[in-house]
Design brief:
By secondary structure, the protein is mainly β. The chain has a five-stranded antiparallel sheet, with no helix packed on it. β6 and β7 form a beta hairpin. The protein is globular and about 70 Å long.
């Protein structure tokens, strides 16, 4: 016990050296209390259940990979117009804005944007999108009084020649729909209020309308709880209890909430007040992410780290305790970020040429394969290249 108590005060390099002394010392190093102290010293957040040593090792290697910056970068010039939101999955990438683009991609050891399957032109603005399994949902603005969201099926063969046609357009909301999110049992959309839809056979039926009274910039739901970020500066939460929704305010910003990311028990919000906030629903604690010098328009999280994008042309990687580990300087005003595994997608506008730009960053091993060009077909790419991490300002 004395040896274990002493080991709990050591840093990681010295603990590793002690583990090499003998079998007895190796057994002492394996004690949970040693790794609990290291877990807290690295500010990894909430202590997990189970084998602490193994989980610390997995978490440490994962965060170290992201702290060293991207190993490969793919930069694409494309006529995105004004991008506003991204959704990324292992097989597809959706970009919404003044144009909507749904692209198939392969993100194994390299990243190839294969082709554009679906697109909406300037006649139908798309402010939000979300990919769930084989379906992608995007908001659309056809004309006043006919706003809603559209559903696209991505389960098609790669050699299909025609663009994907949308199906199941939603009934009109009577207002501009700014955001949409889907789960296995339904869809939640945000206009000036929040609408909860449920699947009934092959149709979506409106089940609940949750009053907000302000522009809903981002929504999320798991089928029971519903969360939204709104222009009133608040993150609203509705919990399903006793056959009805009960509303609470999770956190409050001093300006409009522009983005919301949820990975239970963490709720992350980004705002025009140049900050983002991490709220832990288990401990009811909050961390304020301070570092951006302009509005933070987008955020994403996987429960291990938080990534934020701002109009100050930077993307920051934070720990769940609110410590900034990486700051990526870009050549564009960042409007949207999305993360999937080791891949990070960044969309925005070039500061000089005022055109849409998309970055795909790989935070995987250095030995990954680089693909320097690809044919996007109808997207009309002008340039595609991979550059080293230092070119991205890491």
């Amino acid at each position: 016990d004395l040896i274990i108590g002493i080991l709990s005060f050591l840093d990681l390099p010295h603990v590793q050296q002690c583990a090499l002394l003998s079998r007895q010392w190796h057994g002492c190093v394996s004690a949970d209390c040693v790794w609990v102290q290291l877990w807290h010293s690295f500010m990894f957040g909430q202590l997990p259940a189970g084998a602490i040593r193994q989980q610390f090792r997995d978490r440490y290697h994962l965060e170290r990979t992201w702290r060293t910056g991207p190993t490969r970068q793919y930069k694409y010039f494309m006529p995105l117009g004004h991008p506003r939101h991204l959704s990324l999955s292992p097989t597809h990438l959706a970009v919404s804005g003044s144009k909507f683009r749904l692209m198939a991609l392969h993100t194994g050891v390299s990243c190839i944007l294969k082709r554009v399957f679906a697109s909406l032109g300037y006649s139908a603005l798309s402010w939000g999108c979300h990919i769930n399994a084989n379906y992608v949902f995007c908001t659309n603005t056809l004309r006043p009084g006919m706003d809603g969201f559209m559903v696209w099926n991505t389960d098609i063969s790669e050699d299909q020649e025609t663009d994907l046609a949308p199906f199941l357009p939603s009934p009109p909301h009577g207002d501009i729909v700014w955001s949409v999110f889907s789960w296995a049992g339904g869809v939640v959309s945000g206009a000036s209020d929040v609408f909860v839809w449920r699947w009934q056979e092959d149709a979506l039926v409106l089940q609940h309308k949750l009053e907000v009274g302000s522009i809903v910039s981002s929504v999320w739901s798991d089928g029971e709880d519903v969360l939204c970020g709104a222009y009133d500066g608040c993150v609203h939460q509705w919990q399903w209890q006793g056959g009805m929704y009960h509303k609470t305010i999770v956190c409050t910003h001093t300006a409009e909430v522009r983005s919301l990311a949820v990975h239970p028990p963490y709720i992350v919000s980004a705002s025009n007040d140049c900050t983002a906030r991490i709220h832990n629903t288990h401990t009811t604690t909050a961390a304020i992410l301070i570092g951006h010098t302009s509005a933070v328009l987008s955020c994403t999280t996987d429960g291990v780290k938080v990534i934020t994008g701002s109009l100050d042309c930077t993307v920051r990687v934070w720990s769940m305790m609110g410590v900034c580990h990486v700051c990526l300087s870009t050549d564009l005003s960042v409007f949207a970020v999305a993360m999937c595994g080791r891949w990070l997608a960044i969309a925005g506008e070039d500061r000089l040429e005022q055109e849409g730009l998309l970055y795909l960053l790989d935070f995987g091993p250095q030995e990954c394969i680089v693909v320097k060009s690809s044919n996007w077909g109808p997207l009309g790419d002008r340039h595609c290249q991979a550059r080293c991490p230092t070119d991205f300002g890491v």
